[in-house]
Specification:
318 residues, 2 strands
Length: 318
């Protein structure tokens, strides 16, 4: 590795750390955009300069955040931003075989890796909020109460909030928070991986072939992981919250697979543009319902193999 590559890698880490710090200030929309793009430079380093460069960028960014913020912020950044960026960019460049027979690391396996990282980062965030169920509930209720008593009164016409309403809201937030954290983390990972891939592809620095995303398939056994997570989510305490985080991440994975099925089955159809536009609009307007249908479509594809049947090929259930 040349000194120039090392310097570029450290610079990518510095950019990521600055973006991470900047995401805590300014207008809400700007903060969201900065948060989403925090690991982008690490992905660029990993895909464009190689896995070692990506690792240097991730370590540099984590060390800078540790120095300018605190260990907790550095741990969250490492788990939710740096480590996934390093691992996903490395896996994206893995291949076996030679030249024309080369087989690249499957896109579906990248999605599974992102789901595992997203679930882990969600669990870490929850443990930082409270190492046990009681501490977690107390921290969450305090946050809901603070928001209700300091932010809501500034909204014109907002009614006063009672303690019972705060308790009820806390329970609702507790039930959905693990899945929301996991889904947002996974979406951020895959968005940055895709963007960095397109940039490096356009620059000619992407060494792998661009995958056929409409052919995305999750590895065998993924549905069993989803089922196990759903069962675990019924358990009380931190274990149940962890189960919800895993279920949320793999729910998004199956929804993406369902979207890939729609893209594949509409190829060659004169109604393709209309159908895809309708699907994406429904995802924005009816997010929960549309994503559920896509997740069920992805789950059905993993069992019945509609795409293989459409090509006249037998479906491999292994």
């Amino acid at each position: 590795m040349t000194p120039q590559t090392i310097l570029l890698s450290v610079g990518a880490g510095l950019v990521s750390a600055i973006v991470f710090a900047s995401a805590t200030t300014g207008p809400a929309l700007a903060r969201v955009a900065l948060f989403l793009l925090t690991p982008f430079s690490i992905y660029l380093a990993g895909l464009g300069l190689g896995p070692v460069a990506g690792a240097i960028a991730g370590i540099s960014a984590t060390a800078i955040i540790f120095a300018i913020a605190n260990p907790a912020a550095a741990m969250v950044f490492l788990a939710s931003e740096a480590a996934p960026a390093v691992m996903l960019s490395r896996q994206a460049l893995l291949a076996r075989g030679e030249d024309t027979a080369r087989e690249w690391f499957p896109a579906g396996s990248l999605v599974r890796t992102a789901a595992l990282f997203a679930a882990a980062s969600a669990v870490i965030v929850m443990l930082l909020l409270g190492p046990d169920s009681d501490a977690f509930n107390t921290t969450l209720r305090t946050a809901v109460a603070t928001f209700s008593k300091t932010e809501l009164p500034s909204v014109p016409g907002s009614p006063p909030i009672t303690d019972q309403q705060i308790d009820d809201t806390t329970e609702i937030v507790k039930s959905v928070l693990p899945a929301v954290l996991a889904v947002s983390a996974m979406g951020t990972m895959l968005l940055n991986l895709w963007l960095a891939g397109r940039v490096t592809l356009a620059s000619g620095r992407l060494s792998r072939a661009w995958p056929d995303l409409a052919g995305l398939s999750l590895p065998a056994g993924t549905s069993l992981v989803m089922l196990g997570a759903l069962v675990l989510s019924l358990v009380d305490g931190i274990l149940g919250l962890g189960g919800k985080a895993v279920a949320g991440a793999f729910y998004l994975a199956f929804a993406l697979m369902g979207l890939a099925v729609v893209h594949h089955l509409t190829r060659g159809s004169p109604w393709r543009n209309f159908m895809l536009t309708a699907v994406y609009i429904s995802l924005f307007v009816f997010a929960a319902g549309a994503s559920l249908l896509l997740a069920l479509t992805g789950l059905a594809e993993s069992i019945f193999g509609y795409r293989a049947l459409a090509r006249g090929q037998p479906h491999d259930l292994s």
